[in-house]
Design goal:
This protein has a single domain (29-359), classed as TIM Barrel (Alpha-Beta Barrel), CATH 3.20.20.80. It is built from eleven helices and twelve strands. The protein has helices at residues 5-22, 39-42, 50-59, 71-76, 82-93, 122-136, 161-179, 196-203, 239-251, 282-297, 333-342, and strands spanning 33-37, 64-70, 97-103, 142-145, 184-191, 210-211, 214-218, 255-256, 265-267, 275-276, 302-308, 320-321. Helix 7 (161-179) links the parallel strand 4 (142-145) and strand 5 (184-191). It is globular.
Length: 382
């Protein structure tokens, strides 16, 4: 038999084809981990039912529960973590991972102001964060620092606001990592309006040399459907802008990961309102929510996608109501859209379930109400 170059090429091609056919199929590309937050229900038990809320979260296929731990709430609880312990233990019993956002008192609650929107005390933030990380080490695996620092309700606004936030972040990051090096610490948590990118660029000025495990962002977008160009908000359509920004920050040593790379991006609040500042019709909420899930599923750069608020707050005229379940536990149409969109979502598996200490269920029995319910409870924008 005469072996020619063409014969060899055909043989090699055939062998490669056989190997490809025999190899197992590649796993589906991972999408963002799904998450939820409703502090009024999961944390404070102000209304709704926590046991039913976890059942609804399972239907939404979530993997993370975000909870705010706010200075004024903690002081109101006489420096006790009991309320947060119950929420964390209940979440872990469901196989959910817990993400804490640590923040000072916002300007809409009449609580302790020593660490607050008007007093960004970095030293107090350091000690507060250290105490939290020490208490929850091994149970809370992700933290983010402050909430919506580009809004005046969370941080006073003047030319020094980016510096305030940078100092708060540095203090908290060092305190948490000093106690629990394995915990993730995210920077940002900015609202999508109010010059979010300009604010972050000032925080991450060249040479700031901040370290973070990711960028937390609230990609609310109320003027155009997800996927359409948006020039008003740093919203869900503007991932390329965020990606360009994190690459720039890494290159200029503004904010980098521990290894020196660009920050992963986490969408840590999202939703569409049925009442409040930007009310949508039911049909529009369904259509835009469906579009949002389709957009995020195609964005492998996004590591978390969180729906903010489950239950309708029992308030006549709330400023913010992105709820998807009525107080009688009956869902709005948008909830069913989320369940359908999240079905088969390629994400991390649930964490191992950890029984509630003392054999409790982690539901409502034995839990006592109290605190502000974290961020807003429907009273103010998150």
């Amino acid at each position: 038999m005469i072996v020619t170059v063409r014969t060899l090429r055909l043989a090699v091609a055939g062998a490669m084809a056989a190997l490809v056919a025999a190899a197992p199929a590649a796993p589906a590309r991972a999408a963002a981990d799904l998450a939820v937050q409703d502090d009024a229900v999961f944390l404070a038990n102000k209304y709704g039912n926590r046991t039913e809320a976890f059942a609804r979260a399972r239907q939404m296929n979530v993997r993370w529960l975000r909870i705010n731990i706010i200075w004024g709430d903690w002081i109101a609880q006489k420096r006790s973590f009991a309320q947060w312990d119950r929420a964390v233990d209940a979440a872990r019993a469901q196989g959910l991972r817990v993400h804490f956002t640590i923040a000072g008192t916002p300007n809409y609650t009449p609580q302790d102001l020593r660490l607050s929107w008007k007093n960004p005390n970095a030293a107090l933030m350091r000690s507060f964060s250290r105490e939290i990380a020490t208490h929850f080490k091994g149970r809370v695996t992700r933290y983010s620092i402050w909430n919506e620092p580009n809004l005046v309700i969370w941080l006073k606004r003047n030319s020094q606001t980016p510096t305030y936030y940078r100092n708060l972040y540095k203090a908290a990051y060092g305190a948490i990592k000093g106690v629990d090096p394995a915990a993730e610490v995210l920077i940002g948590e900015c609202a999508s309006g109010r010059g979010a990118l300009e604010f972050l660029n000032k925080v991450a000025k060249p040479g700031a040399n901040l370290r973070a495990d990711g960028l937390a962002h609230h990609p609310f977008q109320f003027n155009v459907i997800p996927g359409a160009p948006d020039k008003k908000y740093l919203g869900i359509s503007n991932l390329p802008q965020l990606q360009a920004a994190v690459r720039t920050w890494a290159r200029t040593k503004g904010i980098r990961t521990k290894s020196g790379g660009a920050l992963p991006i986490h969408y840590t609040e999202f939703g569409y309102l049925r009442r409040g500042l930007y009310p949508f019709s039911d049909a529009k909420r369904v259509a835009w929510t469906r579009a949002a899930y389709k957009v995020v599923r195609k964005q492998p750069a996004v590591k978390t996608f969180l729906w903010y608020q489950l239950y309708t707050p029992p308030i006549a005229k709330p400023l913010w109501d992105s709820s998807i379940i009525r107080l009688d536990n009956q869902p709005y149409s948008v909830f069913n859209t989320i369940v359908k969109s999240a079905r088969g979502w390629p994400q991390h598996k649930l964490a191992p379930k950890v029984p509630v200490p003392g054999g409790g269920s982690g539901g409502d029995p034995g839990a006592s109400p109290g605190g502000s319910g974290g961020s807003s409870g429907g009273l103010t924008p998150p």
